[in-house]
Each structure stands twice: as structure tokens, then as C-alpha cells.
What we know:
- By secondary structure, the chain is mainly α.
- The protein has one domain (9-93).
- Helices cover 78% and strands 0% of the residues.
- The protein contains two helices and no strands.
- The radius of gyration is 19 Å and the shape is rod-shaped.
- The protein starts with 11 loop residues before the first helix and ends with a helix.
- The mean pLDDT is 88.
Amino acid sequence: MSTARPIRRWTLHELLKGAEHFCRDIADHFLRGYVPAVKEVLAALPTQRTSTSQRADLIIVHAVEQVEEADRYGRKLLDQLDEILRAIQDHAEQ
Length: 94
């Protein structure tokens, strides 16, 4: 949800809709982005029965980069949701 106005100037209706939107986006991101990225890292890690190779190391590095990217995006969504929830609280206190 994106409007031209700063979040602090949204109406209560826009704030509630925005919070709902970000909650859905966060849940979707973690289910479709973050969790699969973590599973990819776990799958790429060598077990005691396998030896590491340069190729395996590159796969692990790439998988970890995906987790870090998913984490950054998730934090961005959570920060936006936090801003919306604070605005809702401020609106309720008025």
C-alpha cells in the first residue's frame, strides 16, 4: 500500500488497511522467501559423509546471500508495519 502522503497523515481507515496489507505481505514473504532461502542453506551445507568443494562453498555463499537479502526485505516490511502501528496508536490516543 502506497500513498503520496506520509504515513502519519493517513486516515485511520488507510492505517488499518495498510497494517492488514503489510501483515499479509510479511507472512507471504516469510513463507515464500525467507523460509525457502534458509532451507536452501541447510540443504547446501555438507554433511559428515560428504566433503566440501569449491563449488559447494559457492553454493553455500549464494544461499546465505539469499537469506540475507530475504532478511533485509523482511526487516523493511516490519519497519513499515511498525510505523503504521505507531500511527494507529497515536490516532487512538487523540
